[in-house]
Write a structure and sequence with these properties.
The protein is of the alpha/beta class. Helix content is 41%, strand content 17%. It has a seven-stranded mixed sheet, with helices on both faces. A hairpin with an 8-residue loop joins β1 and β2. The longest helix has 19 residues. The protein is globular and about 50 Å long.
Length: 244
């Protein structure tokens, strides 16, 4: 039985994991999520062991705008004259719609960036930095925020950043936008660490049925995209292409 959106929001506010299933005709995947500012090494280990997908940080559209972070597709377009293969690679969107990938980063205090400790450091520093920017208003100008960001992080790195689409849930209803919506409702930094849950028996995405059992066993709130949209008062818009 799914939890309520309010329970998921409270869990996020408390620095705990939640699980979110999107939609059957979209990715049909369940992601584990936790506020970036709360992430410790044992959280990264948990995501590796029980998630198994790509460990990313979803941030709000406002974060991308303030820090002048590009979508990776836009970077490709800037260099297609020099690297024409990139235009061909990015010609068609993913089956579930346009991805929200931006750059990858490591905190400058890390070494290789891939260990549980290093990735937790990067994710937490990103969350704390954005909490200082958006909730505590520590940096008064975009120029200063960008300068501080460059002092704290390097790229490329081992933590992919996902930027929510402008208008967020109104215009795109993926895990990135859902994560950002829930973070804003929880009044935490607009940065959520997330990872897809995979199934080592079927080699596919973890089914909702199995995810419900896992959530119950680990006392993790699990909610669906439909619940989130109802909470936000937004209607579901199916992706432009059907899932393969």
């Amino acid at each position: 039985m799914p939890s309520t959106v309010s329970e998921a929001i409270e869990a996020l506010r408390a620095g705990q994991f939640i699980m979110v299933y999107d939609f059957a005709d979209r990715e049909a995947e369940v992601d584990l999520m936790i506020g970036a500012e709360f992430v410790e090494p044992h959280h990264i280990a948990f995501l590796r062991q029980y998630g198994g997908g790509l460990i990313c940080v979803a941030v709000s559209y406002e974060v991308g705008l303030l820090l002048d972070l590009p979508y990776i597709e836009d970077l490709y377009r800037c260099v297609i004259n020099e690297y024409p293969l990139l235009e061909k690679l990015a010609r068609e969107p993913a089956p579930y719609g346009k991805p929200t990938f931006s750059i990858t980063v490591n905190a400058r205090t890390t070494y290789t960036g891939i260990t549980d400790t290093d990735r937790a450091t990067t994710v937490q520093e990103l969350g704390v930095f954005l909490r200082n920017v958006f909730l505590l208003h520590r940096f008064r100008t975009a120029e200063r925020a960008r300068r501080e960001f460059a002092l704290r992080f390097r790229s490329p790195g081992h933590v992919p950043i996902l930027i929510a689409t402008r208008g967020e849930l109104v215009n795109r209803q993926g895990h990135t936008e859902i994560a950002v919506y829930l973070a804003k409702q929880a009044r935490i930094a607009p940065a959520v660490c997330l990872c897809e849950c995979l199934d080592g028996e079927t080699f596919q995405a973890l089914s909702l049925e199995k995810a419900e059992r896992f959530a119950a066993d680990h006392n993790i709130p699990l909610i669906t995209g439909d619940q989130v949209l109802e909470h936000a008062g937004i209607e579901y818009a199916a992706p432009p292409r059907t899932r393969r």
